[in-house]
Write a structure and sequence with these properties.
Length: 387
């Protein structure tokens, strides 16, 4: 007997609700885990335990003939593990860096609906704070709001998996006394947004931020004779297209922002890379204290002499002390042609005495060295089953 489609869907709904209940119970257990590790001072991540867990789950599924692929199980439980790790990190950080009050003022580029706004919402929700939005028209204004204590934090894009580093933000970091205190990896899902109904063939003008235009260059290239209008942010573009209300213009942005401005999605998944992620940094007036139990990153700003091998000598300090360097970016030094300032992101906690030894040694090979911030890594790398 064939079940009615509505009955099948109701069964699926019931199972989905049961899954949500179980996920909620597992999420709450993360707090019990971190309270235990808080006493024992164990590291939050136990890669061997995570690896063994995944293997056991796959073997159990096979023994029960659940007919679930190993990769499917791995993908789901990697996400669950990530949630558990981030939950535990937030718990420890909230205790170390007590944020008084229920409200949090966060400055960001653009208006409601911009990716920076969505990342700011994500950060506030994570720390269970009520977001007070501080909308800005430029990255410089974002920094200014925190420097003048008109905002508690700022959320700024630092790099994207498609378009690379956001140089303007790097340059502003070179001239500020603010500190990096966190990071957010936010998935970017670009859409073509229009008023009402229209056809792709009718679109002859596109509005968006330069970074978004760059990230959707392959899609734009396929369009015939389209005119590009650059805007201060993707949210400004969406607001402008909504106000102009013409069938021949469209904005590039996200679906959530589009709904705020009453726009419809004409095309989705239009970025050059489907796995398009922007890493946002969180900056504040004061540096954060990061628990030694947390996987920690530190961003440094350094310059070296112009002698041959000077940079190599400096980088070898990290190799000597077995410190992993995640990123090396260079930017021009204003007023000094052909000289570069280097941004180095390393896996290290500045509150660790061993790290202090490294920095003292690094000073011997650099003309200038500044710590821009020490912060929890919230990009949780999945454990490999092959390791």
């Amino acid at each position: 007997m064939t079940l009615d489609l509505n009955e099948i869907r109701q069964q699926i709904t019931n199972i989905d609700r049961s899954l949500l209940k179980l996920l909620s119970e597992r999420h709450r257990l993360a707090f019990d885990v971190v309270r235990s590790k808080e006493v024992t001072q164990k590291s939050l991540r136990d890669l061997e335990r995570e690896q063994q867990l995944l293997k056991e789950l796959i073997e159990y599924s096979e023994s029960q003939d659940y007919q679930l692929e190993a990769q499917y199980i791995t993908d789901i439980f990697q996400k669950i593990i990530e949630d558990s790790v981030v939950t535990q990190q937030v718990y420890l950080q909230k205790k170390l860096n007590d944020q008084k009050g229920k409200n949090i003022r966060i400055a960001f580029l653009g208006k409601k609906g911009s990716y920076s706004h969505l990342a700011a919402c994500n950060y506030a929700i994570r720390y269970q704070k009520q977001l007070i939005e501080v909308s800005c028209n430029s990255f410089d204004e974002v920094f200014h709001k925190v420097e003048k204590e008109e905002a508690d934090y700022a959320v700024l894009p630092l790099e994207n998996t498609t378009s690379g580093a956001i140089n303007e933000v790097y340059d502003l970091l070179q001239h500020t006394e603010l500190s990096l205190v966190g990071e957010i990896a936010y998935p970017i899902k670009h859409c073509l947004l229009i008023n009402g109904e229209s056809d792709l063939e009718k679109i002859d003008s596109l509005y968006s931020h330069p970074q978004v235009i760059q990230q959707c260059s392959q899609f734009i290239h396929k369009l015939d004779s389209v005119h590009i209008e650059y805007c201060e942010s993707s949210s400004h573009a969406m607001e402008l297209v909504a106000n102009l209300n013409k069938p021949n213009i469209a904005a590039l942005g996200n679906a959530d922002g589009g709904r705020i401005y009453g726009l419809n999605v004409l095309c989705s998944n239009i970025a050059n890379q489907l796995n398009n992620i922007t890493r946002f940094i969180v900056i504040a007036k004061k540096p954060a204290i990061v628990s030694p139990q947390i996987h920690t990153k530190t961003l440094l700003l350094m310059s070296t002499s112009q002698q041959a091998g000077a940079l190599v000598d400096a980088l070898l300090v990290f190799k000597k002390h077995n410190i992993n360097m995640l990123k090396l970016e260079s930017r021009p030094i204003y007023g000094k042609p052909w000289e570069e300032m280097f941004y180095l992101e390393i896996e290290a906690n500045i509150h660790n005495p061993k790290t202090e030894i490294v920095f003292n040694e690094l000073k011997e090979y650099s003309n200038y060295l500044k710590i821009l911030g020490c912060y929890p890594s919230e990009i949780i790398k999945p454990v490999s089953l092959d390791s």
